[in-house]
Specification:
The structure is a single chain. By secondary structure, the chain is an alpha/beta fold. It has helices at about 15-25, 45-55, 85-95, 105, 125-130, 130-145, 160-170, 200-205, 210-220, 230-240; strands at about 10, 30-35, 60-65, 95-100, 150-155, 175-180, 245-255, 270-275, 280-285. The chain has 2 domains: about 10-180, 3-Layer(aba) Sandwich (Rossmann fold); about 195-285, Pantoate-beta-alanine ligase, C-terminal domain (Pantoate--beta-alanine Ligase, Chain: A,domain 2, 2-Layer Sandwich), CATH 3.30.1300. The longest helix is centred in the middle third of the chain and has 16 residues, at about 130-145. It starts with 9 loop residues before the first strand and ends with a strand. The protein binds adenosine monophosphate. Adenosine monophosphate binds near residues 37, 48, 184, 192 and 193.
Length: about 290
């Protein structure tokens, strides 16, 4: 065992300093990988950092709990903030730099520009959280323009989010490749989420209903069920009969347009959202034809 001293990972808050550090790397022909997060990092985030480490020469992780993507009665104030632990995880996953902007840096006085992705932002999460995606797309635009990475890494766990960000980068000619990495789950199927920390043991058990509903959809469709409305009804039934769970939506959509479908097709995804106690959880799964 070596007990060599390891220097802590470099952090930066201000955008000009971030840009200077990235520019130094660029001038040495390093490719830049970027992983935007809100912190409270778990193995899902770590998998994105590891993917960036594999694909790029210099890996930047941002940690910013973005106030504008939370609704007025949502959990912004109680969202977990554990910077020291997060920095250790970034370092062991192989990140080179952690960008920790403040609210004042991201939203200085008189801030008044917003990015809206129409249509894709209005369904599913957008129907229940009407201001959420404008907060996401505005902050992700700022994050991408500040770093100007070659590749940015997002999780399939937030399926609608990555679809919206892909659309936004195309529409606005933001020259960044978007990579979507697989959802990381606990052994029993629960998708990892920073919000799982809110769950009591009983709620944690009930939360499995989300991944079970998706498994049910995967199995039915793979077995040849042609009536997706029937599959959706069974997913809803499973969620509605689980204690502590309040269903928001359980549906199957076209993987690109996010429009609801009732017959199987080659590219489709099942999505669920539910409150488990007071905690709102989402999950999704691509479905395959028989
Ligand atoms: P967040 O910190 O929740 O904003 O998430 C930051 C990034 O991590 C987003 O691209 C998420 O989709 C991704 N992510 C969150 N949970 C998971 C997971 N369980 N597996 C893979 N990626 C995830």
């Amino acid at each position: 065992m070596s007990d060599q001293f390891t220097a802590p990972i470099t952090t930066v808050a201000e955008i000009p300093a971030l840009r200077a550090m990235i520019q130094t790397q660029r001038s040495q022909h390093a490719s830049i990988g970027f992983v935007p997060t809100m912190g409270a990092l778990h193995s899902g985030h770590v998998s994105l950092i590891e993917a960036a480490r594999r694909d790029c020469d210099f890996v930047v992780v941002s940690i910013f709990v973005n106030p504008t993507q939370f609704g007025p009665n949502e959990d912004f104030d109680k969202y977990p903030r554990v910077l020291e632990q997060d920095l250790a995880k970034c370092q062991s996953a192989g990140a080179d730099l952690v960008w920790t902007p403040t609210k004042e840096i991201m939203y200085p006085p008189h801030f008044s520009t917003h990015v809206t992705v129409e249509t894709l932002s209005q369904t599913l999460e957008g129907a229940t959280r009407p201001t959420h995606f404008e907060g996401v797309t505005t902050v992700v635009t700022k994050l991408l323009l500040s770093c100007l990475p070659d590749v940015a890494f997002f999780g399939a766990k937030d399926y609608q989010q990555q679809a919206i960000i892909r659309r936004m980068c195309l529409d606005l000619n933001i020259p960044v490749e978007i990579k979507t990495c697989p959802t990381i789950r606990d052994a029993d199927g629960l998708a990892l989420s920073s919000r799982n920390a809110y769950l009591s043991p009983a709620e944690r058990a009930s939360a499995l209903a989300l991944s079970r509903a998706l498994k049910l959809a995967e199995e039915k469709v793979r077995a040849g069920e042609a009536d997706l409305n029937q599959v959706k009804a069974e997913m809803r039934q499973l969620l509605n009969t689980t204690p502590l769970v309040k269903l928001d939506y359980a549906t199957i959509v076209d993987a690109d347009t996010l429009e609801e479908i009732s017959s199987p097709q080659s590219e489709m995804v099942a999505l669920v959202a539910a409150y488990v106690g007071a905690t709102r959880l989402i999950d999704n799964s691509r479905l395959s034809l028989p």
